[in-house]
Amino acid sequence: MAIPSNEQEEKELQEELDRAQRELTILYNISNAMRTTLELNHILYIILTGVTSHSGLGFNRACLFLINKRERCLECKIVIGPDSGEQADKIWKYIKNANQDLEDLISADRIAYSTSQSGLFESLRALKIPLANDGTLLTSAYMNGSPLHIRKGMIDRYANDPLLQVFKTNELVIMPLKAKDKVNGLIIADNLFTQKPITSDDLRIFMMLANQAGLAIENSQLYEMVVHKSHTDSLTNLWNHGFFQHTLALELAKTRETNSALSLLIIDIDNFKQINDTYGHQNGDIILLELATILKDSSRDVDYVCRYGGEEFSMILTQTAREQAFLIAERIRERIAHHQFPKQPLFHNLTVTVSIGLATFPTDAQSQIELIARADKAMYIAKFAGKNRTSVCDAESS
Q: Are residues 310 and 205 in the same domain?
């Protein structure tokens, strides 16, 4: 029996109202969540949780690429989604049984977060897409600034695309993230495991979410720039003394928890007062900048290079025992001693050397104050022993 037209219209209207209410609730919850933090990684996690959660847009998988301005490329920052159908079933059953909403997933549930360390994330993290108008899927979405929906019947045309070489799927959407009409990132999402088609309604609400997400990312990046500036030395752009003290405390706490080692280098430029008196303070600043570059280039991702004060620098070498730290210190010392300074008449035949003091936690010290004092004393021993050398703390004689 056919439903009378007025009843059919009422039913369709009610369905439309219910859908609109659900969409508004999703956007409201995600928007509220994004306002709780300015920390970029947390913002990205909230965005992708909103895209993938059952109480959000409900996509099976999503990954987020941001613009790397320095290297002029797109690079993957986070992935949320299972690696297999079996893993997907386990995650969704757990979330359903736990009766978790979006707020629960963001603040408490760690299952979604752990999948960002999946094999897919590792593969995508290695993928860097140059910002060139080369016709690839990601650069096309970036250049055009509009959503790109690749349907099942179209996917084979892009089989050789760099993204699809890693992100295997049969349908996807690429959604640009914008702030003030400038694209600052892209989200790629699909329904690989449920095979649910991506509809025009999905795209519409996804675009509304992306508009909020792009602004949240820009605000977070501006905040991080301000924080970074407050923690860096104005001349060398290395971390400043305040950051050094704060970070050393945090890293020592981690070292205690993991029962590992941390080494500290105090690095002092030999005869710097004489260099300033001979060449002037402006040229002394050039030498400080050159040494800062050498130290930064000689450091690892897990290290912290800081301007300790005046002509002194410090390096926090995390997860590093004395023997390895000594090799690092000697490599830095020799690199500085053989460095060719800018070709200026003033610097003709100028050789700059450093004296380095090394102390290791917990071998040489049991506290932050003690570790700094031991490294500083070792540096002065290197000075008195003839300069241009690395001295290792002798805990027994300290």
A: no
Does residue 1 surpass a pLDDT of 70? no
SS3 letters for the chain?
CCCCHHHHHHHHHHHHHHHHHHHHHHHHHHHHHHCCCCCHHHHHHHHHHHHHCCCCCCCCEEEEEEEECCCCEEEEEEEECCCCHHHHHHHHHHHHHHCCCHHHHHHCCCHHHHHHHCHHHHHHHCCEEECCCCCCHHHHHHHHCCCEEECCCCHHHHCCCHHHHHCCCCCEEEEEEEECCEEEEEEEEECCCCCCCCCHHHHHHHHHHHHHHHHHHHHHHHHHHHHHHHCECCCCCCECHHHHHHHHHHHHHHHHHHCCCEEEEEEEECCHHHHHHHHCHHHHHHHHHHHHHHHHHHCCCCEEEEEEECCEEEEEEECCCHHHHHHHHHHHHHHHHCCCCCCCHHHCCCCCCEEEEEEEECCCCCCHHHHHHHHHHHHHHHHHCCCCCEEECCCCCC
For position 104, which CATH number holds?
A: 3.30.450.40
Span 47-74, pLDDT tens digits: 888 888 876 788 999 999 999 988 899 9
Tell me, yes or no, whether 115 and 153 share the same domain.
yes
Kindly state whether residues 314 and 215 are assigned to the same domain. Answer: no
| pTM to 2 decimal places | 0.64
Question: Could you tell me what percent of the chain has a pLDDT over 90?
Answer: 53
Active-site amino acid positions: 311
